[in-house]
């Protein structure tokens, strides 16, 4: 594993190995407390974070390694106008592994082109968040005992919620999972996520009532409305508060339902739900630390440093997604995958582009 940009780069067996390792570390943390001694993790957080950043740092410290980085780009040379390429080229020379979060889609992929050290995507705009999915699958595996055959409800901002996209992509590769996508018509999942469900033959339905969906669910994945991704405050105001899980609604749910949430919560889960034994969103954050310990130690064991600088062939068209990193970092090579017909898929952000 060179970089972790999207969990799609792992086979199901490789993913299961990480889950098993996370559990082994959880059972016996002492045995792993030196495995990253002498190694350095850089956390480059261009966007706010509590859990992801702190769990990455804690994970590295608990493995015996050290941490550098920034959580406010205004305190780094980014504020002087330094490009992503230059920052990454330099940090890739200091650190052994890099976790990066950014508001533009495809940033981690872009960083991986210029980093001598392996890069982990800690969230790229409204696109993907693979290490949150690792957190989610470790939680589900422990709390459900399986990753197969579940009816999984995902509720809230399915359009902009990167955790939703990564989770659906991963869970659609396990046998017999079915998705109930609960959102307003404006916030339904993007096409590239539907493409993955369709390709894997996974059943899914798009509904607009949480109460109607609840009785059939084995898992409910609640998400907040992603205010920072909206063009205007008015548009956000129209979407917020539409879906709220409270104790009353929970009466409709199965006794063995598991409620997950990547956090932070805004108003979509009432506080009294926290005391229901089906609520798993706080223990989920602890699983996330073990998941990241497993990931970092696996990547540092297998990944070699990559010779730099590298050059890339570039396409002559530009991605039309205004949230794609190629919009702001214009020197980036334009990379596409042919989709058939006159369609190209942007390798950074997964947007479809017509030739
Ligand atoms: C999520 C994120 O950043 O995408 N948080 C997290 O990493 N745990 C979810 C969110 O911000 O809503």
Name the features.
alpha/beta, 16% strand, 355 residues, 35% helix, single chain, 5-stranded parallel beta sheet
Contiguous low-pLDDT stretches (5 residues minimum) are none
What are the bound molecules? Answer: N-carbamoyl-L-aspartate
- The number of helical segments is 12
Helix content: 25-40%
Mean pLDDT: 96
Shape: globular
Alpha-carbon Rg, integer:
20 Å
- Number of DSSP strand runs: 12
Strand % is 15-25%
Query: Class by helix and strand content?
Result: alpha/beta
Biggest sheet: strand arrangement:
7-6-5-8-9
Q: Please summarize the sheet with the most strands.
A: 5 strands, parallel
Cα separation of the termini: 32 Å
Q: What is the ordering of alpha helices and beta strands?
A: HEHEHEHEHEHEHEHEHHEHHEEE
Secondary structure: elements and pairs:
Blueprint: H1 12-27, E1 40-45, H2 51-62, E2 66-70, H3 84-94, E3 97-102, H4 107-114, E4 119-124, H5 130-144, E5 151-155, H6 162-171, E6 178-182, H7 191-200, E7 203-207, H8 210-213, E8 219-222, H9 233-239, H10 247-250, E9 258-260, H11 281-302, H12 325-328, E10 336-340, E11 343-346, E12 352-354
Parallel strand pairs: 1-2, 1-3, 3-4, 5-6, 5-8, 6-7, 8-9
Antiparallel strand pairs: 10-11, 11-12
Helix pairs in contact: 1-5, 1-11, 2-11, 3-4, 5-6, 5-11
The structure holds N-carbamoyl-L-aspartate.
N-carbamoyl-L-aspartate is lined by residues 51-52, 123, 129, 132, 162-163, 223-224, 226, 262-263.
Can you walk me through this structure?
This protein is of the alpha/beta class and 355 residues long. The protein is 35% helix and 16% strand. The strands form three sheets. The chain has a five-stranded parallel sheet, covered by helices on one side. α1 packs across α5 (130-144) and α2 (51-62) crosses α11. The longest helix is centred in the last third of the chain and has 22 residues, at 281-302. The model has no long low-confidence stretch (mean pLDDT 96). The chain binds N-carbamoyl-L-aspartate. N-carbamoyl-L-aspartate binds at residues 51-52, 123, 129, 132, 162-163, 223-224, 226, 262-263. N-carbamoyl-L-aspartate binds next to α2 and α6.
